[in-house]
Amino acid sequence: MPLVSIVIPTRNCRAELSRLLDSIERQTFRDLEVIVVDNFSADGTFEAAAKRAIAFQLGPERHTQRAAGAARARGEYLMFFDADMELDPTLVEECVALGRQGFDAVILPERGGGCGYWAECQKLEKECYWEDPWMEAANRFIRAETYRRVGGYHPELVGEEDFELHDRLVAAGARVGRSRAMITHHEGTAFWGVVRKKFYYGTRARRVFREAPGNNFMRFVFLKPAYFRNWRRLARHPLLALGLVTMKTVQFLAGGAGFALSLARRTTGG
Ligand SMILES: Nc1nc2c(ncn2[C@@H]2O[C@H](COP(=O)(O)OP(=O)(O)OP(=O)(O)O)[C@@H](O)[C@H]2O)c(=O)[nH]1
Ligand SMILES: [Mg+2]
Cβ distance 27 to 87 under 8 Å? Predict the structure, then answer.
């Protein structure tokens, strides 16, 4: 069986990482190496990771960490997960089977995690993105040879780097498959946590627009085609749909504020 290398960038996410590593240890596919690249965590994430995986420290952000992890990887296939993810037990096995059928990269669909009203809204949002041509990306399972041939993750993008890599894989003629097994993505729903994260991505969006102008409009647009395609699903859950619109409005405004700040800084030379 081919070796699969799993690369995980981390920063102050000890509990989440432990949940992810548990789900990796439950995989039906066993020929794995796990590489954790830690961004100088202060909560013991690195020490915990070093007990269960190959682990080293490097900053300043996830793009550098993923690149360094991929460079260290010996696997025929590379997988990239964030600490707030949890894998279905047959996910890796299914991806390797698709790889052996000739697919160079595989889309791993996501479901939302957690409980509570906002978590349920996020779950509804993710269901709308299933099989959507704009909102899914094949950036988490890639043949190592293909990953290196297209140059891997963009060396500077934070936020949307997944879509940018997906577009480059497709443009390079990579055969893209899709798994049935899924990732549970436990995205935070804490209001200020979400605002801070989207504001941060907003401050880095100029680079995204400059480096990857192509398909971004359909991904950034507020009223996404995915919502119209799923109007029945939204109509079945009107209260959650209302929450989804509220959540996206807050995220959009936070991202917009970050973007505006980056423009202001540019004009004042900041
Ligand atoms: N936010 C952040 N994450 C980092 C940093 N360095 C490494 N990471 C790791 O990079 C991954 C980023 O994942 P998330 O913060 O979930 O990013 P995201 O998926 O775009 O955001 P959500 O959609 O809200 O989950 C996590 O595994 C982090 O631990 C950093 O400087 N900031
Ligand atoms: Mg996340």
Answer: yes
Q: Give this prediction's pTM.
A: 0.94
Domains located in the chain, CATH noted: 4-189 (3.90.550.10)
Amino acid letter, 263: L
Q: Which residues of 147-169 are buried (b: 16+ CB within 10 A; e: fewer)?
A: beebebbbeebbbbbbbbbbbbb
Ligand 1 within 6 A of 11 CB? yes
- Read off the amino acid at residue 183: I
d(CA 165, CA 240): 31
CA-closest residue to ligand 1 atom 11:
82
Ligand nearest to the CA of 251: 1
Q: How confident is the model over 81-117, as pLDDT tens digits?
A: 999 999 999 999 999 999 999 999 999 999 999 999 9
